[in-house]
Amino acid sequence: MTRAWILPVLFGLCGSAVAAGLVVSGRSGAAVALLLVFVLLAAMHSPLVYPRSIGAQEAQRRSAADGRPVVFWRPGCKYCIRLRIRLGRSARRLHWVDIWRDPAGAAVVRAANDGNETVPTVLVAGRPHTNPDPEWVRGQLPPAA
């Protein structure tokens, strides 16, 4: 769990250090702007921007029941961030599995990607798709009830 927060914490600490240096040199406006950029980067790379993760077995069980795809992801992955942002509110309709928290999820991803933990890997009807186009993923969602 702590591994997921390393990058966001580093962004926060670096942003604070740079902002403090700018404040000391009398450039408080630039310090505020730069700190805001670092805070946004930290937020984008944190697990908070993703819907709540569940275990791989539970996600696959739910997917079989409701037909929704399963997304295997990890914090800090720029392709996962791209998928999450481009899906918008539709992302909440998918089942998300953080492979750093769930060893079974990591095993599913390795099995689908020749032993590599390449994410995002999207499981649709039991078939894995590595780094698919977000529009394609949106098209795989069942109609909203």
UniProtKB/TrEMBL annotation:
* Domain of life, per lineage: Bacteria
- Domain (Glutaredoxin) ranges: 70-127
> Which SUPFAM superfamilies does this entry report, sorted A to Z?
Thioredoxin-like (SSF52833)
List the signal peptide residues. 1-19
Q: What is this protein called?
A: Membrane protein
The question of whether Signal is a record keyword is answered with yes
Species this protein is from:
Streptomyces nojiriensis
Annotated membrane-spanning segments are: 29-50
Query: Which controlled-vocabulary keywords does the entry list?
Result: Membrane, Signal, Transmembrane, Transmembrane helix
